[in-house]
Amino acid sequence: MSIGSTGSVLVPSMPRPAAAAPAAWRRPVGLVRLAVLAALAVLALTTPGFLSEPSMLALMTTVSFIGCVAVGMTLITISGNIMSFSLGALVGATAMIFIVAVNFGGVVFGFVAALAFGALVNAAQGLVIGLVRANPIIVSIAATALITGVAEAFAEHGTIYVAAGTSYGIFRGKVAGVPIEFLVLLGAAAVGQFILVCTHFGRNIYMLGASFAAAEIVGIRTWRTVTGVYLWAGLFAAFAGVLLAVRYDAASMTYGAGYEYDAVAAVLVGGTAIKGGEGSVTRTLVGAIVIAMVQVVLLLQGFRPEWQYLIAGLIVLAMVMLQSPGVRE
Amino acid sequence: MRRLGSILSNDSHARPFVILIGCVALLAIADWGRGEVFTIATAVTTLETFGTIGLVALGLGLTMMIREFDISVVGMFSMAGCIAVLTGHNPWIGLACATGIGLAAGLVQGLIIVRLRLGSIGVTLGGLLVFAGVAYVVSENRTIAYDNIQVALAMGNRIAGVFSIRSLTAIAIFILAALVIGMTRIGRDVIATGNDRRGAMTAGVNVHALIVGIFGFSGMMAALSGALLSFSLASASPSGLSDVIVPAAAAAILGGVSLAGGTGRPLGIAAGVLTLGVIHAGLNAIGVPPYVDEVTMGAILLLVGIADGPYPLRRLRQTARALKQPT
Known about the structure:
The complex is a heterodimer.
Chain A: H1 21-46, H2 53-81, H3 87-130, H4 136-154, E1 160-161, E2 174-175, E3 178-179, H5 180-198, H6 200-210, H7 212-217, H8 222-248, E4 250-251, H9 259-269, H10 281-300, H11 307-322
Antiparallel strand pairs in A: 1-4, 2-3
Helix pairs in contact in A: 1-10, 2-5, 2-6, 2-8, 2-9, 2-10, 3-4, 3-8, 5-6, 5-8, 6-8, 9-10, 9-11, 10-11
Chain B: H1 2-10, H2 15-31, H3 40-65, H4 73-87, H5 91-115, H6 120-139, E1 144-145, H7 149-156, H8 165-183, H9 185-195, H10 197-202, H11 207-233, E2 235-236, H12 245-254, H13 266-286, H14 290-307, H15 312-324
Antiparallel strand pairs in B: 1-2
């Protein structure tokens, strides 16, 4: 398979001098990570207003939307397909489908339609990637253009609104002070982690990411695993779309814009390997919270909001560089 | 007819040109002598598209030829646009800043890939996010207007009826690249590196320098086209220009470059870009809404992405068989 599915196009795999080299390289990385986390916690706690209720609520809701997408992205990354560029567009599209379906057939129908749409559209990409062996990056970039284009065709005015008098207000409430969005995220993360740790399917995902060739040789039907990964990723992204639509009573393609980057940032900051084969959803959850904390702290410290993009980019670049297989001989 | 078929399936160098001629012929047939679609305006639109995505496709295509992928061109394109507009009261200084930063950033990415032995997609994804972040910060997240309107007007001037400064720049660089890749050792080194990196290294190719150089070139090309586009639009914004990757990747693959590396030529990429330009211009001339164009580009990228890689027909047959199996 060409680039992508094998995780990365590495510089030639020259014989390594010693197998111990990566381990020796990893230990300081763990220390760096702990130190950064501690520094961030101190910075956050000493920032006035960080622990206030509005700030915590804002943090939890932001994390929820991006976190759901990131849970799905984790599965894709672990399976060795790096990332999907189309998840952000999918979030916007599922939000629109949700609003349309709610207006058409009620709240329950809206949920079912939106979740099914997200899962199926993404599973179709998974089929093309897993079965026809197309490059995952190319497929997801093409899918982004297709989803955005089709959505534009259907919604000429950009934003669609829910009909007056629809009641799903309970989903905007709080349980014991925690927004429902955040509980949905925790649920999605629990499901994702359960899939990865407790099922055959999850074990296959890791194996696929670690070595595609080996997974084929031991008889895994790789296309089924890949399709399954994309189906679940689409489902989790659809959660984010539905949550956004519920929150704003409306939907447009701008809702999910850039979420694919935020999600993959959360995945990488959590320490999941970009080349696949290792990582977990709980790590991604930590990554998403770290990024959101950085954003809140930056805002409270008086930085303009644009800075959060640059800081997130630098963090991602640093995380990728820390994942180096070892110092070059 | 059979000869045409064998060119399409076997001769990867001639294929892009056959497809391009086919598209132009389709356009001529659709027009059928009425002079509505097959016009000077269509040629102008095609060449303007060539000026916008041609160089990005060339840089991206070269990274694909050595079996890497530079996803950061998306961020570089908009960052360079913002930088060029902000520093470009004298357009030459703006261009120099934008392309200089593009070259430097590309070289840094190449160095990271080579030194730390990392996959290019991961590193350039980081690069993409950093460049986009820089674009947001320097533009303060708004559309910035270009104050030197003379330059914007000059960019819009027609030269010899159909060309513009942008398309002529792109054509000149394509010719230069074709000469370098076709006539010098660099071209052979690129193909060798893309085919078998370890073999190329054994044969004495300085693979690492080549990788760093090509990422530098790719960054510079994305920056140059981003800067020129912002000059001609007389504005730049951090978010608006990211659609460039879809046509650029599609054009490179259409032009005979494979994601598996080791194939492709600059002139083939040029033919790929022109093919997309002709399709885009044709759709424009018929007067379809913009989303049709977006859907078409996405569909083309999806199709060429599926067709790319070894034995597409065999894989499709296997697909059909696997789907029929009940268990």
